[in-house]
Write a structure and sequence with these properties.
Elements: E1 4-15, E2 18-29, E3 33-37, H1 44-51, E4 59-64, H2 69-78, E5 80-83, H3 95-102, H4 111-120, H5 134-146, E6 152-156, H6 164-181, E7 184-189, H7 192-198, E8 201-206, E9 209-215, H8 216-222, E10 223-229, E11 243-249, E12 252-258, H9 262-269, E13 275-279, H10 283-292, E14 295-298
Parallel strand pairs: 3-7, 3-8, 5-6, 6-7, 11-14
Antiparallel strand pairs: 1-2, 1-4, 8-9, 10-12, 10-13, 11-12
Helix pairs in contact: 4-5, 5-6
């Protein structure tokens, strides 16, 4: 059994003349919660559709649960729980009727687990879906995704459009189930602080290009903001490996560096700053630097 549930190598998809996803290579460790971050239109959903065999790649390859989505998409989807953004369900059905409708598609469907999830999520089995709130509908979708005991759970912006309280409740439900079942979760979202609460691995995609893939703890340890103050004025240039952004204002320089280490501090010390302060960043700060980093000067 592979240590990775998902592996891609150069996965790409072109729509007419533009590349929606270009050369994405990543590995998702078994048992991890992998946060796949990107702004709307970054290529998250296109990537997921290729992984599930719903969309043919233009180039590259993928392996999901040890299978190639191009020829075994149906098998992959039977072993995967999938919650889509704004998932559409039959509003005239009750919660129980929808479970009964979906059940035949999955040989591993567990009626006892489905009933337990409905109770846990405080859903009324007799309620019609059109009468449920957005948060309750999201929990129905999660019930359908988990009731067949999938090896992999794929969540494509599942909390989009939900209010903050409902989003928190939804994510806490996911975290609880993850710890109980030990499943692998591929969680796509543009709501970064929420991903930070549940993920242990992070991938960042921007304009179809993968910017980074690494454990969350390592990412936070490697990306730092450094505040330098000089006796007179900032040097015209500050050359340091892994520089993501540089902002200068009079005697002060604010740098964000990827791959921060002792060598970074040594390189900066050569410019003889008056003071050096190394600052930790949130995942949201790191995301912004990875996709929008650059240089600016304030007079």
């Amino acid at each position: 059994m592979s240590d990775f549930v998902i592996e891609t190598n150069g996965l790409s998809r072109r729509f007419r003349k533009s590349w929606a996803v270009s050369d994405v290579s990543l590995s998702v460790p078994r048992g991890s919660v992998f946060g796949f971050l990107g702004m709307n239109g970054a290529g998250k959903t296109t990537t997921i559709k290729m992984l599930l065999g719903l969309l043919e790649p233009s180039a590259g390859k993928a392996s999901v649960l040890g299978m190639d989505p191009r020829g075994r998409g149906v098998e992959i989807r039977r072993k995967t729980g999938y919650v889509a953004e704004n998932q559409k369900m039959y509003g005239w059905m009750t919660v129980q009727q929808l479970c009964n409708f979906v059940k035949p598609f999955y040989p591993t469907w567990n009626d006892t687990l489905a009933a337990d999830l409905v109770r846990r999520f405080q859903l009324d089995p007799k309620a019609k879906l059109r009468t449920l709130s957005a948060g309750q509908n999201a929990k129905v979708a999660l019930t359908l995704a988990l009731a067949h005991e999938p090896e992999l759970l794929v969540l494509d912006d599942p909390t989009s459009g939900l209010d903050a309280v409902v989003r928190r409740d939804f994510l806490e439900s996911i975290v609880s189930l993850i710890h109980e079942e030990g499943r692998t979760v591929f969680f796509s979202s543009h709501i970064i602080h929420e991903v930070e609460r549940v993920a242990d691995w992070i991938g960042v995609i921007h304009e179809g290009t993968l910017k980074t893939v690494q454990p969350l703890d390592e990412l936070k340890a490697r990306v730092k903001r450094i505040r330098l103050v000089f006796p007179e004025g900032c040097p015209d240039s500050l050359n340091v490996d892994g520089l993501l952004s540089l902002r200068r204002n009079g005697r002060e320089a604010l740098l964000t560096v990827e791959g921060f280490c002792q060598a970074t501090e040594s390189a900066l010390a050569a410019y003889s700053p008056q003071s050096v302060e190394v600052l930790d960043l949130s995942l949201e700060d790191i995301f912004v630097e990875l996709v929008e980093g650059g240089e600016s000067v304030v007079a």
